[in-house]
Amino acid sequence: MIQVVNLTKMYNGKKAVDSVTFTLKEGEVFGLLGPNGAGKTTLIRMLTALTKPDSGTCTVGGFDVRQNSAELKKIMGVMPQENNLDRELTAYENLLIYGMLHRVDDLYGRIHEALDIVGLLERKDSFVSHFSGGMQRRLLLARSLMTSPMALFLDEPSIGLDPQIRHQMWDIIRKARMEGRTVMITTHYIEEAEALCNRVAILSKGKLIALDSPGNLKAKVGEYVVEYVDGEGHLVQHICQSRSEAQNVSAWCENSVTIRKSNLEDVFIKLTGERLE
Amino acid sequence: MNKALEWYPIYLREMLLFRRKLFKLGYLFSAMIAPIIYLIAFGLGLGRNVRFQGSDYLTFLIPGLVAMSSMSNSYTWIATAFNLNRLYFKTFQVFVQAPISPSSIMIGEVLAGMVKGLFASVLIIIVGFLVPSGFSITPLFVLILLLNCFLFANLGVITGMLAKSHEDTATYSNFFIVPMAFFSGTFFPVDKIPNFIKPIIYILPLTHTNIVIRKAVLDTEGLISFSILIIYSIAFFIYGSRLIKNYSE
Prior knowledge:
The complex is a heterodimer.
Chain A: E1 2-11, E2 14-24, E3 29-33, H1 40-47, E4 55-60, E5 63-64, H2 69-74, E6 76-79, H3 91-101, H4 107-117, H5 133-145, E7 151-155, H6 163-178, E8 182-187, H7 190-196, E9 199-204, E10 207-212, H8 214-221, E11 224-229, E12 235-240, H9 243-251, E13 257-261, H10 264-272
Parallel strand pairs in A: 3-8, 3-9, 6-7, 7-8
Antiparallel strand pairs in A: 1-2, 1-4, 4-5, 9-10, 11-12, 11-13
Helix pairs in contact in A: 3-4, 4-5, 8-10
Chain B: H1 8-22, H2 25-45, E1 51-52, E2 55-56, H3 57-87, H4 92-96, H5 102-130, H6 139-162, H7 166-183, H8 198-201, H9 205-213, H10 220-245
């Protein structure tokens, strides 16, 4: 469904995305994980025809981003990281303009349905400027779903959302996957990537440094983590391949020790030496 | 929706925003204030005893003020809105990521700019009929007014696309729009301008609007100016569409 080959983008002589290559199957939920500035948003912008790549190719649904961008735009839905709603228009008007631009059939029915999915139907005539940040994120998601896209690009979909709304948003994304849509999500929330993604790509400084299912990535670097606080108050972590290895490591620690299962953040730290925040 | 009407959602969006602004008193005043001040200061005050081209000064001045007002409103609203939508509110992304052609974006924005320019012009025309003068409207006047709005709305899109910050938009305006308002025949005929500046003045599109808008029929001079306005309009439209086509964040 999505093919990316040696995609590169430079800003002011620095590589924001550096020769990234991967493939997504139809119906897959694919996570792009990395800290701020890793190149996640630039990558999504190139795939959605907002940013022109310097080199490499990318196709979505068989349409080349550079040569067939009009065809590509018909099959994609985008939820950007930055709020690009019209604040001086109502929720309904925002979806109306978007639906007309994308020539959505049964437009009024689709607007009604999209607002209902994200729980904003009763606020359809409210101005977006009167919405909370979370409501604006939900409206952006509704807008991206309005065209029933084959490929859905969600850039930090749950940023700034409270846990309850975040879980509602995850349910909507799971439903999109069940409907056969291909979903690409950028996130720096570990639990989001683990809850939703079939596969995860880890980006660091524009480079793709790992790509696999969350389970395989954790298995590769070690499934257990030993944590303790050293004499200077620093949190020390050791990633271990097995529980017995973790118990051996914990045996020679003086302070209180915790043994827990590893997560994608541990994978990220192990591979890059950085934290995700 | 018909492919030929791809521009309509862009236009509709601008009109929805414009309709809301219309009900704010400040908008009405801001569209009218500068031309009305010029009309009172130059027309009713300074120009009381001045005659140009065989008629009283107000008859000369009012078409110029209509041309100036249509220029500044068509241009400023589109340049500012386009620039803000692109750099700050990011709403321009929605257009770029929609399956419509760059020229459709251009048409939608330019038509919206024309409506704003015409709205301001109508206000000046009403005032023009209220003050004692020989001001009248001909079909040629209406045609040139529409063409002037189209031309400067196109220029507004170009500025909105090229400006790297909101301050840049004001800089472009100060360098091109403000001098054009004063030296292109709005307040006095361009033949009164020193010869060494004339080549520059005749490059400016508003000069040609001011030449044709005061004519009752299209003579040779008018036809040349009209052709220049058409060429500018087409060139600006093509350049603006190319800027949108090559847009990349």
